[in-house]
Amino acid sequence: MKKIGIGMVLMLFTISIIAQEEEAIKQKFIEETRIEAPVFSGDMSNNETERLSLNQYLQDELSYLANYDYLDDEGIVSVTFTIEADGQVNNAFVSNSVAPELDNAVLNAISNSSQLWLSGKINGEATAMEKTVFVKFDIPGNASHNQLAIDYMNKAVTQVYAIEYIQHLPLAKNKQDRKTNRKARYAQNCLVRAEKFKPDDLSITFWQAKVYEIQGNNDLMRQHLNKYLELVAYREFENDLLMNQDMAVITIK
């Protein structure tokens, strides 16, 4: 029995050493891997003085929208795309929608920006990488996007609390289900509207997961909980974007 015990200890010790060595190798690989993100060069004519920042490029491409009197939608459109090793833009799609006309305008601007990017690199070698850019459409005189997002989210939260109250009432199950489903749908619609003004927000994502749980949609609930965990490190979302010039602001008259 002692031999078996010693053998087990030696085996566990060996496994522990192997695991530590594998972790050290992984860490060394991460430390030695130099990743450079894609950069918007803005080189319109090989002239240094005519190079644009991404913000300037988007402002120029989308400035015509500011004169459309009939546009009454606002919010943040985000477009995700791949910058290939040769600087071409591919696979662009709207990852946060505000309204079809605004979505398509941003999508076209990004799709037309091929050859204006310097590709990302891994250890000095040009590599295809994904990127997301954001365009904030703002209507002067309206509440701030942050306040609008909070207002819609608060409406959703009120519905969730109402659902919890309904579930403790002595109602027939079919009547209770009808009331619950109606309020859950309204709450989800409010959260969709909130997300237009503040995409990838921690609180909005959390409450979306909660509403999906109420609706019994476990797949979407888990999807949003996973998204919530990924967003924990990005609390100052909009400020970071503005500082990094990954967001353009278009004011609609």
UniProtKB/TrEMBL annotation:
Residues 71-138 form the TonB C-terminal domain. It holds the Pfam family TonB_C. Its main location: membrane. Keywords: Membrane, Signal, Transmembrane, Transmembrane helix. It comes from the Bacteria. Residues 1-19 form the signal peptide. It is a single-pass membrane protein. It is found in: Membrane. InterPro entries: TonB/TolA_C (IPR006260), TonB_C (IPR037682). This is Energy transducer TonB. It comes from Carboxylicivirga mesophila.
